[in-house]
Design goal:
Elements: H1 3-13, E1 16-18, E2 27-38, E3 41-49, E4 66-67, E5 70-72, H2 79-91, E6 98-108, E7 114-123, E8 136-143, H3 144-148, H4 160-163, E9 168-171, E10 178-181, H5 183-199
Parallel strand pairs: 1-6, 2-7
Antiparallel strand pairs: 2-3, 2-5, 3-4, 3-8, 6-7, 9-10
Length: 201
């Protein structure tokens, strides 16, 4: 059985619901985790959001953060439709290039009050990506094995104090750029790695 089939079957009976109390009513958002195999090794696409500022000059909540492509769910569209639309807009990866493997789960953002639906999508071969410079500062491809090296399976992703410890650090070998994956994206990454550990990659 292929790895992607194992993931599909796993997500058919197990989804992550990681929510925290928020000072705001949850607003709906959706993101996509695009990944593919390169010489038998899984690669995940992350983005770095551009810096953005509020009218008062203060920096917006998720400005400059590492994230998955995605955004708000618009009226009249499903969560998956929103995730696909945002992925096309932000990194020029179209729905016709993707195979939806399943839904990883629903994750809340404590600071900004979003409840985000996260989907996994397989790409056949290395994609040709182009970022929307208004929204995306960088596209970052990270090998799963590199994330597993600093994964902490003993942490409880549903515990707020433990969530503060959920940081994944990685350095791009060619450019030397260092990234830190944390917050909601860190929690989703933790759940993704837990799943991959359980099914065996």
């Amino acid at each position: 059985m292929s790895l992607f089939r194992k993931i599909h079957d796993y997500l058919g009976y197990h989804q992550n619901i990681v929510r925290f109390d928020s000072p705001l009513d949850y607003r709906s958002a959706a993101t996509l985790v695009p990944f593919w195999e390169n010489n038998g090794e899984l690669q995940i696409i992350y983005i770095q959001r551009t810096q953005s500022f509020l009218p008062d000059g203060s920096e917006a909540a998720h400005s400059g953060q590492i994230a998955f492509p995605g955004g708000k769910i618009e009226e009249g569209e499903t969560a998956l439709e929103a995730a696909l639309r945002e992925t096309t807009e932000e990194i020029n990866l179209k729905a016709t290039e993707l195979e939806i493997v399943g839904k990883l789960g629903e994750f809340s953002t404590h600071v900004s009050g979003f409840l985000t639906h996260i989907f996994l999508a397989r790409i056949e071969g290395k994609p040709e990506l182009k970022m929307c410079e208004d929204e995306v500062a960088d596209i970052i491809v990270v090998p799963v094995n590199a994330l597993l090296e600093n994964h902490k399976p003993e942490l409880d992703a549903h515990n707020w104090l433990n969530v503060l410890k959920l940081h994944y650090h990685w350095q791009e070998p060619v450019s030397g750029k260092e990234i830190c994956i944390w917050g909601m994206t860190g929690r989703a990454t933790w759940c993704l790695l837990e799943m991959l550990n359980e099914i065996g990659i």
